[in-house]
Design a protein that fits this description.
Layout: E1 2-6, E2 9-13, H1 21-29, E3 47-50, E4 53-56, H2 62-65, E5 69-71, H3 84-91, H4 101-114, H5 120-126, H6 136-148
Helix pairs in contact: 3-6
């Protein structure tokens, strides 16, 4: 049994300690906004925050997440209001298929916490998530818009 603090709520899940956090979040807690993409921490679709740090949940074992604050895409809107990044995503028409977007948004949330006014070089270095639709220019525009908001 593992005890996970996800989006401010405690969840007891009956899983093996080595199970990837992604599967505990999706299959045992029922939060499906975090996506499975590659399974090897390359694409970023599974990005969540663990103690405020963006991590690829497909390779993080549940045992490493116990006792830490986990935030998923479902946990970033506050009081029924989208985060400034979520709103910038809509305003700049970023999503096409949308599959990678939750992980991308989580990576950007972490970037803007550490660098509130990132340069293009900062964005290139920090946002390594892959978008098969190729919306990288809209992503960059949305990041800059959110930074100014």
């Amino acid at each position: 049994m593992a005890r996970l603090n996800i989006n401010g709520r405690t969840h007891d899940v009956d899983v093996e300690p080595g199970m990837p956090l992604l599967w505990a979040i999706r299959e045992h807690v029922g939060l499906t906004g975090t996506k499975y993409g590659c399974g090897v921490a390359q694409c970023g679709s599974c990005t969540v925050h663990v103690d405020g740090v963006a991590v690829r949940s497909c390779v993080m074992p549940v045992s490493a997440a116990e006792g830490k604050a986990i935030t998923t895409i479902e946990g970033i809107a506050q009081g029924g209001r989208l985060s400034k990044i979520q709103q910038a995503w809509i305003d700049n028409q970023v999503p096409q298929c949308g599959y990678c977007q939750s992980g991308m948004i989580m990576a950007v949330e972490a970037l803007l916490k550490s660098k509130p006014r990132p340069t293009d070089a900062d964005i290139d270095a920090a946002i390594t998530n892959i978008c098969r639709c190729g919306t990288f220019q809209q992503v960059r525009e949305a990041i800059h818009a959110a930074a100014k908001a």
